[in-house]
Amino acid sequence: MQLAVRRTSKGVHLTAAGRAAATQARNVLQEVGRLTGHDEGEVGTFTVGCFPSVSAQVIPEIVELLARRRPKVHVDIVEAPAAELQDRMLRGQIDLCFLYEVQLLKEIEPIVLRERWFKVAVAADHPLADRPVVHVADLADHPGALLNIEPASYLNETLLRRFGVTPQISYRSSDIQTIRAIVGRGLAWSLLMTEVQASHDGRPLKFLQIAEQVGTNSLVAALPRGIRATAVVDEVIAHCRRVLPA
């Protein structure tokens, strides 16, 4: 049975059989840890993966929690596209991931932390800002700015086209702060899920509900399917469920 494939310049990747074997092996090691009393998570490294646009919400909470309750645990932070995070988690390099439900691979088990819906972010003086609710078609006549991280960019444009809108995407950036700053200056609207009162440079933002049923894209914690969570993973997930904004 082939467990891994070596790809030129891309390193070694597990096959489906390899991922299944890795899951079983990890569970065996966790059981050994429980039997020997070494699964309390009081020392060592906890590696957390986070999709960049949700990192500012999640990472500080985890760092503070573990600094207070498990001061001998070192937190290693990995911020990367969703596919890379999940691949590294399946290879045992990341303990827990935080991303959006539409990004999940089939081998990943999600734990929903907060339901999220797409909203239209605009500047306070944008032509659409006085509307409490907008239709997707209302966006066609105004320039937009999209987060340029896959699959976010593809999914956003697909959503718009599903309602017959060919968007005027004038700006793209891989940084959520940059997108908010562009929106805050009145240069574009954007499709975002996490509401903030202003961009990082202090420009007010408004978040408008979309009239159409565009579906949810909830914030989730993610683990490989079949993996039993460790004590520290359970503690981190429970904490995030308590403190993350609605």
Molecular structure report:
Residues 40-244 form the LysR substrate-binding domain. Helix content is 33%, strand content 27%. By secondary structure, it is α/β, with parallel strands linked by helices. The chain is globular and about 60 Å long. The model has no long low-confidence stretch (mean pLDDT 86).
Quick take:
InterPro entries: LysR_subst-bd. The protein is an alpha/beta fold.
Quaternary organisation = single chain
Read across the widest sheet, the strand sequence of neighbours is: 4-3-5-13-6
Report the helical percentage.
Answer: 25-40%
Decide which structural class fits the backbone: alpha/beta
List SSEs in N-to-C order: EEHEHEHEEEEEHEHEEEH
Please outline the major beta sheet: 5 strands, mixed
User: What is the number of helices?
Assistant: 6
* Mean pLDDT rating: 86
Give the percentage of residues in beta strands.
Answer: 25-35%
Computed over alpha carbons, the radius of gyration is: 20 Å
Low-confidence stretches: none
Number of strands: 13
For the terminal residues, how far apart are their CA atoms?
A: 46 Å
Per the principal axes of the C-alpha atoms, what is the gross shape?
globular
Family: Belongs to the LysR transcriptional regulatory family.
Keywords: DNA-binding, Transcription, Transcription regulation
Pfam families: LysR_substrate
Protein name: LysR substrate-binding domain-containing protein
